[in-house]
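Notes from hallway chat w/ T.B., transcribed later so I don't forget. T.B. wanted the structure written out for a chain they're using in a teaching module, and asked if we could keep both sequence and structure tokens in one place. Agreed to drop them here.
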Amino acid sequence: MKLKQIELKNFRNYAELQLDFHPNLNIFLGQNAQGKTNILEAIHFLALTRSHRTSHDKELIRWSQKEMKVTGSVEKKHTTVPLEVQLTPKGRIAKANHLKENRLADYIGQLKILMFAPENLELVKGSPAIRRRFLDMELGQIHAVYLYDSMRYNRALKERNAYLKFDQSKIDKNFLSVLDEQLVEHGNKIMLERAQFIEKLEHYASKIHKQLTHGAELLTISYAKNVKTDFAKELLSRQDHDIFRHQTSSGPHRDDLQFFINDINVADFGSQGQQRTVALSIKLAEIDLIFDETGEYPILLLDDVMSELDNSRQLDLLETSLGKTQTFLTTTTLNHLKNLPENLSIFNVEKGEITQTDEKSY
């Protein structure tokens, strides 16, 4: 899978921009706050119809404008698919092959991406919400049915929590049980998909982590599932508690992941270097996992992450990804990048203006 080109209209600081990409490596070079990350954000938006930096869509639209559009051309094994996502006053519009997709689950997955940014280093030691978002984003790209079940579950959860905020004397437990049935139907599917994904992720990540640490460390991943027994029974047994607290206390919306090196919890007792190596192992593992699940390698987005890694981890990342994935990398300097291939494109970014450097002149 390759992203051949992208076109932006009123996206962030770009009024209009059209770029053609190298099928191997694309580097966006420039100082901070010049617009480098905006390019990767646009690719992320084209793939998932959402930003990885903000949940407020208005921030993506160029100042004083009312709408924006991102289009791109994705080259797959046997076809090229044009993609388009718009933000308009009437809402979000996503098109694949010029046809409007009414369901998000039918659009996401057309362009599969892996984002590795400094905040991804928080995957190990950050909040459980970060790890749940990681699961949802990766699984949603691989299996459309997971995205559908996740959306239905979140809709039912929102409705249940809103109902729990009513005056306790007005709560109808029979109606609450109807909402519980919807949570159980989609929640059980979500938990099964997560368990299977985590098992596969551990299989790939443990091998890579062993290589990165020269056999000194064994990485294991534990699914800290919130539901311990039967989901329906747990919801029923906790109804009074949930009514009192005005929120749903049981379900996959409270799941978590735990990472262990040689049976020691990395988040609690691992060094910063170990935490970063675990995060790197997971990202590298996803490359092959997504290929085995879908038959296509994802596109890799590296947003200013190379400066966060030492030289050996940089080399591990580039050696594992290049030749498999089309890679997009932002950086302020090339000085810390070692063993770059000759076959690449470099884009200089300054104050929202982008110029392409001769590949051989860097």
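Follow-up for T.B.: The domain at 1-112+296-362 is CATH 3.40.50.300 (Rossmann fold). Might be a good example for the class.
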